[in-house]
Specification:
heterodimer, A: 516 residues, mainly alpha, MetI-like fold, 2 domains, 74% helix, B: 285 residues, alpha/beta, D-Maltodextrin-Binding Protein, domain 2, six-stranded mixed beta sheet, five-stranded mixed beta sheet, 11 strands, globular
């Protein structure tokens, strides 16, 4: 049958344990401060920031057709990738009791979409195939993991009514899938928003999505156009619940296939073999010179892998704690109970803005403010991820507003924040945060543009220098680090919220309740 | 075992291969003005199509590496490369050849620029005063924004950039380099002179804040490179006709895309100094 259930993992989520975990993480972050490459430089950013602000307030795009095509292709990639990744993830989730499947899923999702994009580009060129695979491969791994967690939470009772001879797939088809259907659907819906972000980001490496034009506009300092693109993307996310209707999906999928960019000039697929048999191995290894090959790997480890590993981890830990502070500072402004039914909208808008703006763009703006170091990266990560979680936390608070837990004598204002809301939201907030930990780590790896030597910096260099042998080693270590953090965060998540694995079930039920 | 694996993998590639058509495709490294690429290079494609009598298409790419990869994988047969990316691409594709370079590319140069707060004065050489400053290159794969400035830094100050400066960044783009030095995010930067001159002429640079402190000696840069197998695919003498078409491009509207005055003949050996430099600083093995 299916593997040992989460329920057997008993652990009281006593306040003391949680506080201990928080204290420990804060201490670790403080210890990371001297290691992390953080500095503030004297800068003179106001002219540039002024131009950016103007662009954001007066966005401009001359070619409406080009803009709508970019929006269409962004949605098309995301939609098709999720449409394929969700069923694949579901199948894998049913096989999640096999260790090999778990390891496979952990490894595919530990590599950032951008890096998958760079890898597939070596094989499939600049094509729709590359874009789709870059999203759907890691997303399948994520779906598998979260769907498996959802299955774990289901009651065993319906399963007991089946004959003990009914095994495997049929057991899922008749009990677990119908039982967890709403959770599966709402998670898939949430994941679609993430896919939109990924699809946008893939434009940075050349796919014709919004990111393609956004990167250009930012690079060229055309902030009115950058503003138009940012607004278009924010509007896309903000209106998601109005246009993403299950009944319209078949129609959307057909349009998506039509909208996919045609592949120009790619004619030869024989490079996959060359890529995996030659390109990703160092010359001494291919020549069979084992001693030299070992030397090559040791040198790479000492000069790049190890220092970058330390740097990446240090930045991640600081960003994690900073994200928690961002959540605590921002979420009350977006709630009915503390900001008020009307006044919560500016707060909600701020959170929408921060979570929709790609971290790279945030980091770039912060680079102008603070100068080049790990600081812009850490703050960008904290703002983006903090806003994302603060939004979920605020939704959870709103969902409870006026419900059976509320009493006429509930305090208001700061007292409500300190003694009622925050303590109630805290375990869920931590669970979300531990889930995003892995994501923060992945994203800190791609902040190499800031001249901080993270793993992403070296991976990017390896691709730029056409040194795939180095890229492979660096990506494998990045993936290993991700898997490690994922394991720890899984443990901590259970500690924070033993009865519910949040990202899976919590988020969207709350969002939906809020929307409904 | 390997044979089976190989078959399966090749089979997986049938899908993209179905899109095959005898179209002559080219690309250009993303370097100066990236906006409206499709429009600008679309015109170049139309010109080449008329001259060569085959269907010509342009695909935009986002990075030097993507341009090299597309060239290597035969997604594009012709590319407008930088000095370094051209060398990298030709090492990966046997028989490929540099056809033509811009007139200006015979004596290209890099400007070192500095924010006024750095207190650096223009001079004949790079000075020791650079030590401890923050510094940004352009893109990692750029000749004028990375390779040559790094070479001259090492030559004149005897150390790697990381040892000279307190921080070394990669802005990713020449325009970004200018913007970041102008805002003081980095104190010093190295930039393609053509991009600087163009932005200066457009009045986009505040020269009270940022100025040129040193100009490198000249070196060969951008060039058109073509794959060696085009004659087999597009007919005998195709390569020669491409070269002719490129050299004969005299419409200012087309040349503006690069931006170059005209194109002159080039050969692989013109770029031997670039290859040697890349090897010397460890960018090529």
């Amino acid at each position: 049958m299916i593997r040992g259930r989460g329920t057997t993992f008993f652990c009281g989520s006593s306040a003391r344990v949680l506080n201990g975990v928080c204290l420990l993480l804060t201490l670790v972050a403080l210890l990371c401060l001297p290691i992390a490459d953080i500095q503030i430089y004297q800068v003179d950013p106001w002219a540039e920031l002024g131009r950016m602000g103007t662009g954001l307030i007066w966005p401009h795009w001359s070619d409406a057709w080009e803009l709508s095509r970019a929006v269409g292709q962004t949605v098309a990639f995301a939609l098709l990738a999720v449409a394929i990744a969700a069923p694949v993830g579901l199948l894998l989730a049913m096989l999640f009791h096999w260790r090999s499947v778990r390891i496979l899923c952990a490894s595919v999702r530990s590599v950032h979409e951008l890096f998958w994009g760079l890898i597939f580009m070596q094989i499939y060129g600049l094509s729709a195939t590359t874009g789709l695979l870059a999203i759907l491969v890691p997303f399948s791994g994520v779906f598998a993991k979260v769907f498996a967690e959802i299955f774990e939470q289901q009651s065993l009772e319906p399963g007991r009514t089946l004959s003990p001879k009914v095994m495997g797939l049929r057991r899922y088809a008749y009990t677990l899938i119908p039982q967890s259907w709403p959770a599966l659907v709402s998670y898939t819906r949430y994941r679609f928003e993430c896919a939109l972000r990924s699809s946008t980001i893939l434009g940075f490496i050349g796919l014709p999505t919004l990111g393609f034009h956004l990167e250009t506009a930012f690079k060229q300092g055309q902030y009115a156009e950058a503003g138009a693109l940012l607004w278009a993307f924010i509007l896309l996310i903000a209106t998601l619940r109005f246009w993403l209707r299950p009944r319209l999906l078949p129609f959307y999928l057909i349009i998506a296939v039509v909208l996919l960019p045609e592949t120009v000039g790619f004619s030869n697929g024989g490079y996959l073999w060359q890529f995996i048999s030659r390109d990703i191995w160092p010359a001494p290894l291919l020549a069979g010179e084992w001693a030299q090959a070992t030397q090559w790997y040791i040198e790479l480890f000492q000069s790049q892998v190890w220092p970058a590993l330390v740097q990446t981890l240090a930045l991640t830990q600081i960003a994690l704690v900073l994200s928690a502070l961002v959540i605590l500072a921002l979420y009350p402004w977006a709630t009915r109970s503390m900001a008020g039914p009307m006044m919560r909208w500016p707060g909600r808008f701020l959170l929408l803005f921060l979570r929709s703006t790609p971290e790279m763009v945030l980091a770039f703006v912060l680079l102008l403010l603070f100068g080049p170091s790990g600081l812009p990266a850490v703050i960008a990560l904290a703002l983006h991820n903090g806003a994302l979680i603060a939004f979920l936390v605020a939704n959870a608070s709103d969902a409870e507003w006026g419900g059976r837990l509320s009493r006429p004598d509930d305090p208001s204002g700061l007292k409500r924040y300190a003694y009622l809301e925050t303590p109630r939201r805290f375990p869920a907030m931590l669970a979300f945060l531990f889930y995003r930990w892995e994501v923060i780590l992945r994203e800190s790896a791609i902040m190499g543009i800031l001249g901080i030597a993270t793993l992403g910096f070296y991976i990017d260099s390896a691709f730029e220098e056409i040194r795939y042998d180095r890229a492979l080693v660096l990506i494998l270590f990045t993936a290993g680090l991700n898997i490690l953090v994922d394991t720890v965060s899984r443990r901590l998540r259970r500690l924070a919220h033993p009865e519910a694995h949040l990202e899976a079930s919590g988020i969207d039920e709350k969002v939906d309740r809020d929307n409904g | 075992m390997f044979k089976v694996l190989r078959r399966v993998l090749l089979l997986a590639l049938v899908l993209p291969a179905l899109a095959q058509a005898e179209t002559f495709v080219f690309t250009a490294i993303p370097d100066a003005d990236e906006s409206r690429l499709q429009q600008r290079f679309g015109k170049v494609a139309d010109y080449l199509s008329t001259e060569l009598g085959v269907d010509v298409q342009y695909i935009p790419v986002k990075s030097y590496a993507a341009a090299i990869t597309a060239f290597r994988n035969d997604q594009v047969q012709l590319a407008w490369f930088g000095g370094l990316s051209g060398v990298q691409a030709r090492r990966l594709v046997d028989g490929s050849e540099a056809l033509a370079q811009g007139y200006e590319d015979q004596f290209f140069k890099t400007y070192f620029i500095a924010h006024e707060s750095a207190g650096l004065d223009a001079g004949e050489t790079l000075s020791e005063a650079l030590k401890g400053k923050t510094f940004t290159f352009g893109s990692k794969g750029s000749t004028s924004g990375r390779l040559m400035p790094e070479f001259f830094l090492r030559e004149q100050l005897g150390e790697a950039p990381e040892a000279i400066f307190s921080r070394v960044g990669f802005s990713g783009d020449h325009s970004r380099t200018i913007a970041q030095v102008e805002s003081g995010a980095y104190q010093v930067g190295a930039v393609n002179y053509a991009v600087w001159e163009k932005e200066l002429a457009n009045g986009e640079i505040d020269t009270d804040k940022v100025s040129v402190i040193w100009t490198t000696p000249t070196y060969p840069d951008y060039q058109w490179t073509i794959r060696g197998d085009v004659d087999q695919r597009f007919g005998e003498g195709f390569k020669a006709r491409v070269r002719e078409a490129l050299l004969g491009m005299d419409d200012p509207a087309l040349l503006e895309s690069f931006p170059r005055k005209s194109f002159v003949p080039a050969s692989n050996s013109d770029y031997a100094p670039i290859e040697d430099t890349a090897k010397a600083i460890g960018l090529l093995d």
